[in-house]
Design brief:
The chain is an all-alpha fold. It has two domains: about 1-120, Rna Polymerase Sigma Factor, Chain: A, CATH 1.10.1740; about 120-200, Winged helix-like DNA-binding domain superfamily/Winged helix DNA-binding domain (Arc Repressor Mutant, subunit A, Orthogonal Bundle). The protein has helices at about 5-15, 20-45, 45-60, 70-90, 95-110, 110-120, 120-130, 135-145, 150-160, 160-180, 190-195. Helix 1 (about 5-15) crosses helix 2 (about 20-45), helix 2 runs parallel beside helix 4 and helix 7 crosses helix 10 (about 160-180). It is globular.
């Protein structure tokens, strides 16, 4: 984090603690997309993921005077999101194989590991890297992993053949994985990435 980022964080944190809606919007814009990526992939329910993230920001606003640093705010949002996703998955009477897998991963993931993921900003980085994928790769990746479309559905939507979808899916995953490794992420720090691509979407 550069000096300018530190100054920005300090300014907006002070404003946020004083009840500034503009400061709240600054933190919302900073974290909303990454949190949505995180939640939507975990629970595979876009409307519910949006609701979970929205409720997290409401809880943040209600506790605006409790945070000493911008990092505290980010950690609170991710922990709140993770806990809400965990509760949602536990409460589901019927789970897909992927949802059961993610539930197991969330239950098995120690909170210290989640803090490590948060501290390294891997979620934010992953969100930015997805946006920087080649157009067709990004479009197919988003339909498969965020909209939970099946390969055949994506082929129909985009008017391309199924093999092209599979090829572009593999290309997107490899591009993202290579970029993350080049940035120094390995081992448990790739958990966030694996949450997106684990399991084979037919």
């Amino acid at each position: 984090m550069g000096a300018k980022d530190t100054v920005d964080d300090a300014y907006w944190l002070k404003e946020f603690r004083q009840g500034s809606e503009q400061a709240f919007n600054w933190f919302f814009n900073l974290h909303n997309k990454s949190l949505f990526y995180f939640a939507s992939r975990l629970i595979q329910d876009i409307p519910e993921a949006e609701e979970i993230v929205s409720q997290g920001f409401i809880k943040l606003w209600e506790r605006q005077t409790n945070f000493e640093t911008a990092e505290n705010i980010k950690a609170f949002l991710y922990i709140t999101c993770r806990n809400s996703c965990l509760k949602h998955l536990r409460d589901l009477k019927r789970k897909t194989a992927e949802q059961q897998l993610y539930l197991s991963q969330l239950e098995d993931t120690e909170e210290t590991v989640l803090y490590e993921i948060i501290d390294t900003e891997i979620i934010s980085i992953l969100a930015r890297e997805i946006e920087d994928l080649p157009d067709r790769c990004r479009e197919i990746f988003s339909l498969l992993y965020f909209d939970q479309k099946k390969t055949a559905e994506v082929a129909l939507i985009l008017n391309i053949n199924v093999q092209t979808v599979r090829n572009q899916k593999i290309r997107a995953i490899e591009l993202l994985k290579t970029k993350l490794i080049k940035k120094g992420f390995s081992g448990m720090l790739l958990l966030a990435f694996l949450l997106f691509v684990n399991g084979d979407i037919k």
